[in-house]
Design goal:
The structure holds two protein chains of two kinds. Chain A is mainly α. Chain A has 15 helices and no strands. Helices cover 73% and strands 0% of the residues of chain A. Chain B is globular and about 70 Å long. In chain B, 31% of the residues lie in helices and 23% in strands. Classes of the chains: A mainly alpha, B alpha+beta.
Chain lengths: 316, 481
């Protein structure tokens, strides 16, 4: 029988690990994107700070959102939000669940932590950074594979899937945010040097898909040229693609069914899932996508609340 | 430069590998020539590989003073320590004998107290011990065993024989390092295991421990609910707690995970409360239950002691078992063995002088500068005098203390700990070691094959403690062939 305290740590371990992977994906796509976009656009590194919801912390430390500052902030600074810090949280949770999780997985997380720690300072140059981020993403994938290949489908594994699924559903909405809400207006609004948006919109969405390793699957699924509507629909509403928000919410429902006392959580997950499936993306893209995504993130925070109340809090 | 056994010089000490310059003892011959066959670079390579394996495997221990860095990698020397099986079998018998006698003694103290009536030792000695728990009077745990897990510290003196330095009957630690040391050595020296030596495996310990714990369950279940109770991640032995829980497939719980209802112990799980049968507790008696012992303890569980009294849960080791591991009681263990088992002790104690005895006290006071003086109820080296290293003032001060309260002190000669070779950056050098085997007892007894060898990594030092620069080694019990 799984202890409540252990369930909580396993859940957070999965969330942190997924967060690390997504942060690495975001940094990677952004670094590439900046090479493709024309000079004179206002699209800046600050966007990354906004997506990760860390504006206040960033502004408290830096005056300018330069590449160097933003990368330092999100990659290895000791601020509770950087990849290195989240990785150390994942490691700490892994260290305190060693009696439950496969030893090999702990060793991988441990190694990944040392790998990033020892290289972080060198990654201000793009070449090194690219290599390291690739390595981080690959290592995370390897850990997920290891867990899938070695853990019994018991309660502990259910909490791994809950943590990962919820974090992934949430992070995908943040990535959709990059394309829709934050960047396009700034792309087009440099008055001194007006830049035509269309040629770059394609590049932008393609990179967003790539950040989620979704480009290929998208291509098989959608035959048209890349468009905002299709990409947003794919990332939010597709039920087959494993990084799409809808797919992850469906997974949560399935996992929940195997856990005791699940009604409250299940209700909240269903509510959120319907909100995703019923969304009219065409209309939202014209107006209100930002607000819609904000609301969606609030619903997902409520899923976490329910999970905590149901399974974690009783031990306190 | 290769390892040169001719220039290796252990001085006046008993070295466990080299008997005289260039000559290895019989059980260590193949190891010595194997080490000699490796180039310096190859040896250093293996040392690096071991350090890397330790880092990857996350083998760590905690240093309290090391703020912000709560886990540190485990210092390890790659050259194994070799002990012949024949010698070990005898030692192992002696360890079982000792624990059997100690358990009978503890059970007697908390029940009939025949030992006082027969005047083997004065009753006050026990009643005044800081580890005596009067709340345990009248309790008889299953098989009359109180100390299920014991870590006995052994040392070799100049004569190359094992002596018992100390019995640890409360929450002895170190066994996980013994197991991990073997794992690392297998990665580093696979060829030695394959070709040269028949090394007795140590891996069965967690299974033996689980069997011991299962057997003391009050409920007769096929698989009772066994948990390991830890003070949490900030404890220096946390790695070991989680390691043993994992290897046994037991839950690792903290005080907050447990609750007592209707004199039974439950743990809080995602599906509600679930009953616990056996608790392998890794917290001290006084923190077990705030309703009986330390009121402010947040590590323990309120009502736990009463659940144990009622026989609804087993505690290993039982509360109060520590009464048999204070320094003055130690001096009586040979007589305790004789008294309860009518056998002669197989492993001798280190020669000890009880200050309460006028004749022995006289000897201690006259030879204070050659002796180590220990107080009865302290542990961890507190309040100790190391005569050969003390100043005149310290000696005079201690002499006064002994005269004022003779009952509280015992003295031993400073033991010339044996040495084994340790791989430094440039050459192999002798360092002092001790050995902590682990002994289990419930219905049957079990002793680990070897134990945890601790090494003083600093030249000439006798301090083997990991928090003070000590390291460890793999320990090989090898068959004669």
């Amino acid at each position: 029988m799984l202890l409540s305290r252990v369930a909580e740590r396993v859940y957070w371990q999965a969330r942190y690990l997924e967060r690390v992977e997504n942060m690495a994906r975001l940094l990677e796509v952004f670094s590439t994107l900046m090479l493709d976009l024309p000079p004179g656009t206002k699209l800046g590194w600050r966007t990354l700070v906004q997506i990760t919801g860390s504006e206040i912390a960033f502004d408290g430390r830096y005056k300018q959102p330069t590449e160097r500052n933003v990368i330092q902030f999100l990659l290895f600074e000791n601020n509770g939000m950087s990849i290195l810090d989240i990785l150390s949280l994942a490691r700490e949770n892994a260290r305190t669940t060693r009696e439950i999780m496969p030893t090999e997985a702990f060793e991988e997380i441990n190694n990944l932590y040392f790998y990033v720690r020892d290289r972080a300072a060198k990654t201000l140059t793009r070449g090194e950074r690219h290599k390291m981020l690739d390595e981080v993403i690959a290592a995370c994938q390897q850990i997920w594979g290891m867990l899938a290949g070695t853990m019994s489908r018991d309660e502990a594994y259910s909490f791994v899937r809950l943590g990962r699924g919820l974090e992934r559903a949430d992070m995908t909405t943040r990535i959709v945010d990059v394309g829709s809400g934050n960047m396009l207006p700034s792309l087009s609004s440099t008055e001194a040097q007006p830049v035509r948006v269309e040629p770059y919109e394609n590049i932008l969405w393609m990179n967003i898909l790539r950040s989620q390793s979704a480009y290929q699957m998208y291509r098989q699924h959608v035959r048209n040229r890349i468009s905002a509507v299709d990409v947003v629909k794919f990332l939010l509403q597709n039920n087959e693609f494993p990084r799409a928000t809808a797919h992850n919410l469906t997974t949560l429902s399935k996992v929940l069914a195997r856990l005791p006392n699940n009604t409250g959580v299940a209700r909240q997950v269903n509510k959120t899932r319907q909100m995703v499936q019923r969304a009219n993306v065409n209309r939202l893209l014209k107006r209100g996508l930002l607000r819609y995504i904000d609301k969606l993130q609030i619903e997902m925070a409520a899923i976490h609340q329910k999970i905590a109340e149901t399974w974690f809090l009783p031990y306190k | 430069m290769r390892v040169n056994w001719k220039t290796y010089n252990p001085g006046n000490f008993f070295d466990e590998i080299i008997s005289s310059p260039g000559y290895a003892r019989k059980p260590a011959r193949r190891l010595a020539s194997y080490l000699h066959s490796l180039t310096h670079e190859k040896l250093q390579e293996k040392k690096t590989a071991a350090a890397l394996a330790i880092k990857t495997m996350g083998i760590s221990f905690t240093v309290y003073s090391d703020a912000g860095n709560i886990d540190r990698e485990w210092p390890f020397d790659i050259i194994p320590r070799v002990i012949a099986e024949k010698e070990w079998n005898r030692t192992s018998k002696g360890l079982k004998q000792r624990l059997r006698a100690l358990n009978l003694f503890i059970n007697d103290i908390y029940n009939k107290q025949q030992v006082f009536k027969d005047k083997l030792l004065p009753k006050e000695l026990i009643l005044n011990s800081g580890n005596f728990r009067e709340q345990c009077l009248g309790v008889q745990p299953k098989y009359k065993v109180w100390a299920h897990i014991c870590g006995t510290d052994l040392v070799k003196d100049k004569d190359g024989k094992f002596y018992v330095l100390e019995d640890n009957l409360r929450v002895p630690s170190g066994v996980s390092y013994m197991l991990e040391n073997r794992r690392v050595t297998k990665r580093v020296f696979p060829e030695l295991f394959e070709d040269s030596y028949d090394v007795r495996p140590v891996t069965e310990y967690p299974a033996q421990l689980l069997e011991t714990l299962n057997s003391i369950s009050p409920r007769r279940l096929k698989s009772p609910e066994v948990v390991v109770l830890t003070p949490g991640i900030f404890n220096s032995a946390y790695f070991e707690h989680s390691y043993l829980a994992q290897r046994m497939g037991a839950e690792l719980v903290e005080g907050g995970d447990l609750v007592v209802e209707r004199e039974k112990v439950y743990m809080r799980t995602v599906a509600g409360l679930s009953q616990v049968d056996v608790i392998y507790r890794r917290i001290d008696d006084l923190f077990l239950d705030p309703s009986v012992f330390h009121k402010g303890s947040v590590l323990g569980v309120s009502g736990l002691f009463n659940a144990w009294l009622k026989g609804n849960v087993a505690l290993a080791n039982a509360p109060g078992a520590g009464v048999a591991d204070d320094k003055v009681i130690y001096t009586y263990v040979p007589q305790i063995i004789k008294y309860y088992l009518d056998e002669d002790p197989i492993i001798p104690n280190v020669q000890s002088y009880l200050c309460v005895d006028p004749k022995q006290r006289q000897h201690v006071l006259q030879n204070l500068d050659k002796l180590v003086v220990k107080p009865a109820n302290e542990s961890g080296g507190y309040g100790m005098l190391i005569g050969p290293q003390a100043s005149k003032k310290q000696l005079a001060d201690f002499a006064a203390r002994i005269k004022a309260n003779p009952r509280n002190y015992m003295a031993q000669p400073l033991i010339a700990l044996s040495t084994v070779p340790v791989l430094g950056d440039h050459k192999v050098e002798p360092r002092h070691v001790d050995l902590r085997p682990f002994v289990l007892q419930a219905k049957d007894s079990y002793v680990t094959a070897g134990g945890l060898t601790r090494v003083a990594m600093v030249k000439g030092s006798y301090v083997v403690n990991s928090s003070q620069g000590g390291g460890s080694k793999d320990t090989w019990i090898i068959g004669d062939d």
